[in-house]
Amino acid sequence: MPSGLTLLELTVVILVLLALIAVLFIGGRAWKRGSDRAGCIMNIRNVQQALRSHQNLSGVPDGATINITSDLVGADNFLRTEPTCPSDGTYTFASVVPDLGTLAMTCSLAGSDDHEPDFYSGW
Question: Which numeric CATH code is attached to 29-123?
Fold first, then answer.
């Protein structure tokens, strides 16, 4: 009896490989969404820290008017460039220095893709 693969065995091998590739793509997509969420939360955290640093160094009180893009972003400021969401969301900046525990920047994807930190009461 000659050795080799039959057409049925070859088809099964191809189907198994395609199934494994499909699982890889699904896992990759989930990893990408998770990393985009983490990147967005880090952007929010960095802006929050830059705002609190600016507030402490300049003696700015809570509730004072602030323009985050001009006061915090720039070569000689706390942030080099204006942050952008990795998932193509848009950021909204506060116009006043928020109270402790309130975010100075929010993402438009906060409700749908959970682009918001879980705990920020001490920020």
Answer: 3.30.1300.80
